[in-house]
Amino acid sequence: MKEEVTMNKMGTESIPKIMFTMGLPIILSMVLQACYNIVDSMFVARMPDTDGIVHAGEYAVNALTLAFPVQMLIVAFGIGTGVGVNTLLAKSLGQGNQKKVAKAAGNGITLGLIIYAVFFLFGLFGIKVYLRSQTGDPIILGMGTSYLRICTLLCGGNILYAIYEKLLQSTGLTVYSTIAQIVGALTNIIFDPIFIFGMFGCPQMGIEGAAYATVLGQIVSMVVAMAFHYKKNKEVDSGLHYLKPDFFIIKEIYAIGLPAIIMQALMSFMTYGVNIIFGTVSIAAVTAYGIFYKIQQFLFFAGFGLRDAITPIVSFNYGMGERKRVSQGIFYGILYVEIIMMAGIIGLELFAEPLIGIFGLTDHTAALCVTATRIIAAGFLFAGANIAFQGVFQALGCGISSLVVSLLRLCVIVLPLAWAFTKMANAEYTIWFAFPIAEFAACIVAVVLMFRAYKTIIGQMER
Questions:
Q1: What is the mean pLDDT of the segment spanning 418-428?
Q2: I need a surface site. Which of 93, 101, 306, 362 has the fewest CB within 10 A?
Q3: Is the dihedral angle over the CA atoms 304, 445, 10, 232 positive or is it negative?
Q4: Could you write out the DSSP letters of every residue in 316-341?
Q5: Where are the beta strands (DSSP E) in 157-272?
Q6: pLDDT tens-place string over residues 198-256
């Protein structure tokens, strides 16, 4: 059995090399995932004015911004559950426990189906109540309801892709999850203009077309990832009997996965709260924040991609008791994430104006978005460190530490600061400083928690 364990490249190849080779496909996959929302925004922003609605595209972008927290919540449950499966599966592989590996995979799929059923019910009964808590504008309400209903009722591809993606990543088959993401993203990009504007004989569907293109891309990604998993993933046994819920397996999945879900859901809660707070300043501020947030996702999702390479690598070697490789995984993981963030800061600071210009916003909204980009990007180095630390905490079983960092950077600090800045005379300028301040404060706490984890967990491995 030891021979089987050492055959996995996460336990044999040099950490810098494996971090790069596993991380690069995941980064590409995550960046492509960001395409789903930003491509929707790019096309709907250019929707023609209809039925007397002036600037219909900007109304549509605002509707997408208000709908976005629910989409993020769907992703949170899918990815969070996948993180729990990923960590448990990788650790079980390192220990050579093949039966537990198969049960972790099967129960992860079952949990994905249950999560889909919950969001399907929300799509039927909860959308209007949710949107009315953020706006009373009838145009935005109508557009948001149409878009979000489609994205929730057909979100099964989104959730199950997240599970199958983690199953591939947990065994080092990251290239296949990336291929699945690429195929789905290209599907979304191709069909967005066709469905939105009505091309090649397809009826013009407007904002509903953006929703249909999105879920179509997600379903395609899910199908491709499933095919790769069942054909290529030889380290995970498959069978219907492994889908039977196992309380102890589910408990272990959510010991790591629940904090990861909450961590991801906090992003949804933060966006929801920011939409409400910024709405007291101006509709333009909400739209500007929505556009910037989707731009920043390209950079953050690249960081999340490396984080998702850090987690199985560190977890696998932690399961094997390889202290040196665990330490190297932490060091190179943080280093690579910070390199990505630094490149992102330079790019955003230099090219903010032409980047925002592609959305065709009004002059005032575009100017606000450029201001937000240049202020918030200043804190991305701290954000990158926080993202990397969270991946390490998940790998070591310190889900609570990861949750604490997320709470600080996404809710506890940023929302009260944003609310306080709205009370200032120049609120449309000052509100953006809440984000880098929150990242800096959370990073200090993350460093302290990392030192504690290193002493109490990794130090024990040496003994």
A1: 89
A2: 362
A3: negative
A4: HHHHHT-HHHHHHHHHHHHHHHHHHH
A5: none
A6: 888 888 888 889 899 999 999 999 999 999 988 887 777 777 777 888 888 888 888 87
Cα 298 to Cα 34: distance, rounded to the nearest angstrom: 6
Q: Are residues 326 and 338 in contact, defined by beta-carbon separation less than 8 angstroms?
A: no
- Reading the block at residue 83, the tokens are 């993180």
d(CA 340, CA 31): 12
- At 423, give phi and psi (nearest 5°): -85, -5
Whole-angstrom CA distances from 224 to 85, 154, 170, 221, 236 are 19, 17, 17, 5, 17
Helix (H) or strand (E) holding 67: helix 56-95
The CA R_g of the chain, rounded to the nearest whole Å, is: 22
Would you state the torsion angle of the CA atoms of residues 407, 152, 105, 16, taken in this order, to the nearest 10 degrees? -50
Q: What are the residues whose beta carbons fall under 8 Å from the beta carbon of 15, sequence distance 6 or more?
A: 313, 325, 328, 329, 332
Read off the pLDDT band of 11 (50, 70, 90).
low
SS3 annotation, 401-420: HHHHHHHHHHHHCHHHHHHH
